[in-house]
Design goal:
Elements: H1 5-10, E1 26-29, E2 32-35, E3 38-41, E4 46-47, E5 50-51, E6 62-68, E7 73-78, E8 86-101, E9 112-118, E10 123-127, E11 131-148, E12 160-161
Antiparallel strand pairs: 1-10, 2-3, 4-5, 6-11, 7-11, 7-12, 8-9, 8-10, 8-11
Length: about 180
């Protein structure tokens, strides 16, 4: 097939390469049971404070909820003082989540990976300490339910922030196809 030379010069081919792995990050879809009258989903099952069904030990010490307005960018976040792993689940709306491995001795140091978390297709996203994390809320905003294996201490916050564009402003650009 012959194409117009100007079109051919501007054309790019969509790629579907797998995203790089980040050591220790887990993405586990949840089952949402739907019916005409609504829906039901189990978020976490606990036994002695430990989350069942995860291939890593995770003792829940705090559960929080965050609401993001449409288009909100909340990035990048780390917990540099103490280990704090997190288990995220979007229960309404959508978040485009970026993770970046900044652990000095990690075999996947420097890897960046995006995840789409959605209330329509809920999943657990396990984020180990040392993996920078941030999100951009979708057009409807989002409600994020998350568990941590550390409790927030207002006298000694373990909340490190990097600039929203530290790993590149292009991470947050809209896909205009």
């Amino acid at each position: 097939m012959m194409l117009d030379p100007d079109v051919l010069a501007a054309l790019s081919i969509q790629r579907y390469d797998p995203q790089p792995e980040i050591a220790g990050v887990l993405h586990q879809p949840l089952r949402k049971h739907r019916a005409l009258e609504g829906a039901f989903m189990e978020h976490l099952r606990l036994e002695g404070g430990q989350v069942e069904g995860l291939p890593v030990g995770f003792e829940v010490r705090q559960i929080s909820v965050s609401w993001a307005v449409p288009g909100r960018i909340n990035a990048f976040h780390l917990h540099p003082k103490r280990v704090q792993d997190e288990l995220w689940c979007v229960i309404a709306g959508e978040l485009k989540v970026w993770l970046v491995d900044v652990r000095k001795d990690s075999p996947t140091r420097g890897n960046k990976r995006a995840y789409l978390l959605s209330g329509e297709a809920p999943a657990l996203l396990y984020i180990p300490s040392g993996v920078a994390h941030g999100y951009r809320a979708g057009a409807r905003g989002a409600t994020l339910l998350y568990a941590m294996n550390s409790q927030f201490d207002p006298r000694d916050p373990n909340e490190g922030r990097l600039p929203w564009d530290y790993f590149g402003a292009e991470l947050w650009e809209e896909d205009r196809g």
